[in-house]
Backbone:
């Protein structure tokens, strides 16, 4: 991995870690639906120049129905669930639970597409969900002081991401990934619009909340997508997914520095266990022999040499 790829990984992790901070700052004033309408609409505007290029515009029109469905499942639903959850949960805590996305993706791929689950992947699932138990143990009450519903909302959001990722692979793998990402944000904004209009706050949020919402849309959604797909193009999806390991660290850092959120020993332990499980589930640990790794590297190089920039 080259130095510029490492820099991009750190930038992306800082941006996606920052998204939890901005949601935490602004969601109480806006509410989940209005805030996530702003996030998807602003993010879509950032990606609009990429979508208007001729091949992508044609792809978007030809696959509008499928992209719209992905936009609801993979953006609108999980964004709103995160917004609801983070009215109670801290930025760092939510980001740790977000690291369970690869587990749900693996389970959905197994149940829906019959994707093979070897022993290491199964072990990764077990280890990862054990980490979740460590993190949520003692917080799953559903009374006034319990965090059961917000925690379930985050896990529901990560499940939606898992479904969305598999659905994208199944139905949209033939189109450009930027078309899928940008188009899904457009349709997510359209889907959220009526709900946001009904739930728009009677009292206008303050300047800090507005700034947080705009930064969430511009940098943590639109610009972050550009960085993410640039990474995929250069180092492949397996390399890009390593950002999963860095996001909780940045989210906890931003939360502690800027919001005074506590970082507990249980959070650190849960993070470590979940990320070990993630590394096993995604194949970053122990799944490839040297010969297989060499073959994979050759295929990646061949694919890069055959690709052309926009």
Residues:
């Amino acid at each position: 991995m080259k130095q510029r790829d490492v820099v991009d990984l750190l930038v992306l992790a800082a941006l996606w870690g920052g998204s939890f901070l901005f949601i935490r700052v602004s969601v109480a004033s806006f509410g989940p639906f209005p805030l996530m309408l702003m996030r998807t609409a602003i993010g879509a505007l950032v990606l609009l120049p990429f979508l208007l290029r001729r091949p992508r515009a044609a792809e978007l029109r030809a696959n509008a129905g499928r992209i719209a469905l992905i936009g609801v499942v993979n953006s609108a639903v999980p964004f709103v669930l995160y917004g609801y959850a983070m009215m109670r949960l801290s930025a760092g805590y939510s980001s740790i639970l977000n690291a369970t996305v690869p587990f749900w993706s693996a389970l959905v791929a197994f149940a829906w597409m019959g994707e093979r689950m070897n022993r290491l992947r199964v072990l990764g699932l077990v280890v990862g969900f054990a980490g979740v138990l460590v993190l949520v143990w003692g917080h799953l009450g559903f009374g006034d002081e319990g965090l059961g519903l917000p925690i379930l909302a985050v896990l529901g959001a990560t499940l939606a991401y898992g479904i969305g990722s598999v659905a994208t692979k199944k139905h949209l793998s033939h189109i450009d990934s930027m078309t899928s990402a940008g188009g899904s944000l457009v349709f997510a904004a359209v889907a959220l619009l009526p709900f946001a209009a009904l739930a728009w706050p009677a009292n206008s949020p303050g300047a800090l909340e507005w700034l947080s919402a705009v930064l969430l849309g511009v940098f943590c959604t639109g610009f972050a997508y550009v960085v993410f797909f640039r990474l995929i193009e250069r180092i492949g999806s397996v390399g890009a997914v390593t950002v999963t390991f860095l996001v909780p660290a940045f989210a906890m850092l931003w939360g502690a520095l800027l919001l005074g959120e506590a970082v507990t020993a249980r959070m650190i332990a849960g993070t470590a266990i979940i990320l070990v499980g993630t590394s096993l589930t995604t194949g970053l640990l122990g799944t490839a022999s040297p010969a297989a790794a060499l073959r994979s590297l050759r295929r990646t190089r061949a694919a890069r040499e055959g690709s052309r920039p926009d």
